[in-house]
Amino acid sequence: MVLTPSAHVHARKLVELLGSWNGAARPSSRSLSAAVRQLVLDGRLPPGTRLPAERELADALGVSRTLVARMLEGLRAEGFVASRRGAGSWVKLPDGERGNDAHGGWFPTEDTEMLNLAHATPNGPPELCAATDRARLRFPEQLSGHGYQPHGLRVLRERIAERYTKRGLPTGPEQILVTNGAQHGFALVLRMLVSPGERVLVEHPTYPNAIEAIRGLNTTPVAVPMVDGGWDLELLTANLRQTSPRLAYLIPDFHNPTGVRLDADGRARLGRALARTCTTAVIDETLVDIDLTDDEPPPPMAVFTDRAILVGSASKSFWGGLRLGWIRASEEFVQRAVVGRAALDLGSPILDQLVLAELLCVADQVLARRRAETIERRACLVAALREHLPHWSFRVPDGGLSLWCDIGAPVSSRLAVAAEQHGVRVAPGARFSVHGSLERWVRLPYTLPGDQLVEAIRRLAAAAAAVHEAPGPSLLTAPIA
Questions:
Q1: Whole-model pTM?
Q2: Per CATH, which fold does 11-96 belong to?
Q3: CA 104, CA 130: separation in Å to the nearest integer?
Q4: Which range, 71-80, 151-160, 431-440, is most confident?
Q5: Strand, helix or coil for residue 465
């Protein structure tokens, strides 16, 4: 389906988004097409966005109208632009199978030659098949009922609650709502607590799909910058006071994408700040199990404040294909969420819930293997970067699934375009930005097998060399938007 035009991007803004697209000596329709395509793939030109007229864009870019016309013609052929006489041109995503790649590699690709470093999702554990076999034995007993479980199966809620209790947060099954992933849980909380026009405080950078969920409700994300060591709690507290957000979305456990973790003292300070400003926080615990240290982990945020709603997921701990997550909150909030959920869906798949319940019985075994594998892959990625891209800087995180790399110049979107041409996909820093900035940064997951990680970095180094061979006058001096 072709979307009709909705929002309009002015030529001046599009030029700003494109940045140093013409680093080569002579601008070409091909390089301009690649840059616009990357903006679409990054989500910074959403489908339905009306593009400037050819002459207007040509004047703003300082190129010929013929070059712009050829660019649009190429993007129409690839399925990224649609045009209609009298209505102009607007952004769309490719139809059919190419639509699978329309997220810039955010999801896996069927192209076996392409190495995908744009998503940070591990493979399923070997215990998954045995857990599925055990779940099948329990499945027939569910068939006598209607199959709708808006709270989630009790056996699964009990096992999730037990894990919170073991982490130092006493929890009963009545405080758990099973959802279709953490993103679904966050979207449900947003719908319940935030109205259009209100503000939601987020870290900067942050998880891109959270930004999309916030904007999808016509609410405004308020970005609080992260600092080298993690969170500037004074700045965060000041923003809570000054902007009066209706909700905050925070990732204190191996923050995505930076990988840092907020310690217990920091959680206590954050809890006091939330209480003083009467701000409810959604705490994303998607990566809490990917702890690659032997240290005692800090307690969940809900230990420090009753204004924390915890959202968890099976995707990073076990497997993304299960598509299950959960909300941990007060019993009263869970009951309200069950009622509000009916507007979105009527429950999560029963068989998947039975499988996850079985996996939780062997969670320690599964997670021990996951952590050992992740430590090995992290070391492999670090070694490859230090060999092939030694000028890049990064902090080796204590957990999570990716490195947040400073590439030394504001060219990550250009690098992503070049990397695609070298057979590797990466997510540029702008993907994690509220305002499309962070062009000095790129996120690199260590979820692929070691040999694939080494080859991916070798290809990425070749792409980086291609970007820097023809830097143009503004490559190293262009400001970060």
A1: 0.79
A2: Arc Repressor Mutant, subunit A (1.10.10)
A3: 34
A4: 151-160
A5: helix
